[in-house]
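Researcher: We're teaching a course module on how sequence relates to structure. For the next exercise, students receive a sequence and then see the predicted structure as tokens, so they can try to spot secondary structure elements on their own. Here is the exercise chain.
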Amino acid sequence: MKNIFLIVCGIVITSSCKNEPSTSMSKEIRTPKTTTLTSAQRLANTAGIKNWNEIEQIKFSFNVGKTGKTVLTRNWTWNPKTNDVQLIALEDTIKYNRNSKLDSLQISSDRAFINDVYWLIPEFKLVWDQGTTLTEKKSQIAPISKDTLDLITIVYDNERGYTPGDAYDIYYDANHKFKEWVYRRGNDSSPSMMTSFEKFTTIEGITFATDHRSPDGATSINFTGIEITKTN
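Model: And here is the predicted structure for the students to work with:
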């Protein structure tokens, strides 16, 4: 178990998207009755949230690269309907149910899980997560590409999650697709981390950005081995 402890603790140096999701992660997603969608709903729809109810299981590998070398890999199996989670890292395996009381090692694993899911489907978090404030600005200069993009900012309150009070500035294009984002720890005015969204792929109706790069290209976060099992 020493290996698994080290690899889940590696989250501290890799990224910071670790807020606890609302319980709606394991519930059905209902289509809004209103005909006018919010920007958050449009972004989630573009990424395929309407197909989420059909997913029985999703597998994916979360990988962190430094100067071209992979330094961290976590392999996940998640059943959203039951909230069963399995982590395989190095030679160790941890299984737990997010609806159950977790021990200290499972909590560490769950922190890593929430982080990695946030990177995988951040568009859905805009409409899933509770205790948030959303603000919007049109035609902003994106910090990495310098392109003119629309901006939606999500700020978490100080009472929930593993890292309460955090903020994410998300830049998206006219097609409601994420292009880059800035993470600000504790809603600080200065960026804690920023990355691009690249190499989009669509699997069973869900669209993922499988590659993220820091402005200098030295740090990368990517996903491999994404597999989806749909409800029969």
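Model: If you want an answer key for the exercise: The radius of gyration is 17 Å. The CA atoms of residues 27 and 204 lie 19 Å apart.
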